[in-house]
Each structure stands twice: as C-alpha cells, then as structure tokens.
Amino acid sequence: MNPALALATARRILTQLRHDPRTVVMLVVVPSLLMVLLRYVLASPRLFNATAPALLGVFPFLIMFLVTSITTLRERTSATLERLMTMPIGRLDLLFGYALAFGGLAVLQVGAATGVSLAWLDLDIRGSVWLLLLIAVLDALLGMALGLFVSAFARTEFQAIQFMPVFVLPQILLCGLFAARESMGWVLRWLSNVLPLSYAVEALGRVTGSSTVDLALVRDLLVVAGCALLALVLGAATLRRRTP
C-alpha cells in the first residue's frame, strides 16, 4: 500500500462530500438528533443511561454502512472507479483512502453524539470518555468496512440497501441491545458471539459502567478492530472496476 495514494484518495472523497452538505448533515447531525429523541422517548435518566451507550455504537455503525456502500457503488457505476484503476493505484490504496476519509467523518459523528449526550442529556460515564469515543469510532469504521465489502456484490443502490437486513440487522438484534446475550438460547448466543457488533456494545457497556480497563475490554477492542481490518482486506480482494 502506498500512503501517498491512500491520502490522495481520502482528499478526493472529502472534497466530494464537501459539495454534498446533505450527506454531511446526515453523517454528523442525525446520530445526535436520534440520541435526543431517545432521551425524551424513554423519559427516564436511568433507562437512558442503560440504553444510550449501546446506541452510541449502533447508530454510527448503521449510518456508515449505508453511506459507504452507496457511495462506493456510485463510484463504480459512474465509471469513476474504472478510471482510477487504470492509474498506478492499488486496491488497498483505494480502500484505505476511503477508510481515512470516512474515518475522519466517523470521529466528527461520534464526537458530536457523545458531546450532546454528556452535556445536555445527562449521560453518566464512569470510565474514560476518550476510550468511549475510541470504541464508538471503531464501531463506525466497522460499519464503513462492511459497507465497502458488500458494495462489491451489488449492481444498484437499491441492492446495496438490501444487504442491510443480511449484514446489519442481525447484529443489532443479537448484540445485547434488546435482550441480554446470556439469556438467549444457545444457537442465538453462539451467533451473537461470532458477530463483531456484540463485542462493540459489550465494550461500550464496560466503559460506561466502570473505569477499569481489563482484559475483557482489550479483547473486545481487538475483535472489533480486527473485524474492521478483515472486512477492508476482503473488500480489496473483491473490488471490481465496474458493475456489469
């Protein structure tokens, strides 16, 4: 991988996004608005503190998956990707350039949602705020990496959205947000244990509930980061110049 080419790709993506303010608003503002909505729907600080940490990971994961998969597919169908790959640029250069660009947006997105939750919504965090931000950003990067990966198998934007029930919704249902993973049947518990979002939600719960950094937390972070990296590598292996 050539770092200069990856940085050039990241600058190109950010320049395009700068001319698309609606997408930027969706990426940065919508998660914060959803957290505000959740606070007033629950109408209880205790319930909000029990639910909000997990959603700080789920919302960025979902939004980055949608935006990244559609953006990558649009570049392929418009022949932009085909023109880029005629140049001396590798697949990993392209994908890591996307990762840098959307990773920067993920930092803004998670930082805004966390700041609103802490300053105005009375979210109680016993651990490090910076560690919570790191976990949430890793979660957003995981959604971005999966979006890059599945875009290789879609021919239209509608097909890219159809992948969401396959790659995203099962993770949200089984991550422990709606029911404790320990209370699930053995099949569902096994599925939950192999899905990376479960470890991100578990890590967010550990950070908000305790200031201790233990081996379980480190394991959760490594699993999420490793899955995001694996999805990027698989995306590079399946990257095609254009959609037939």
From TrEMBL:
Subcellular location: Cell membrane
Domain (ABC transmembrane type-2) ranges: 14-242
One GO CC term, this protein: ATP-binding cassette (ABC) transporter complex
Keyword NAD found: no
Record lineage: Bacteria, Bacillati, Actinomycetota, Actinomycetes, Pseudonocardiales
Keywords: Antibiotic resistance, Cell membrane, Membrane, Transmembrane, Transmembrane helix, Transport
Biological source species: Amycolatopsis acidiphila
Bilayer topology: Multi-pass membrane protein
Protein family according to the UniProt entry: Belongs to the ABC-2 integral membrane protein family.
Record keyword tRNA processing present: no
GO molecular function: ABC-type transporter activity
Superkingdom to which the source organism belongs: Bacteria
Any single biological process term in GO: response to antibiotic
Transmembrane segments: 21-42, 54-73, 94-121, 127-153, 160-180, 221-239
Protein name: Transport permease protein
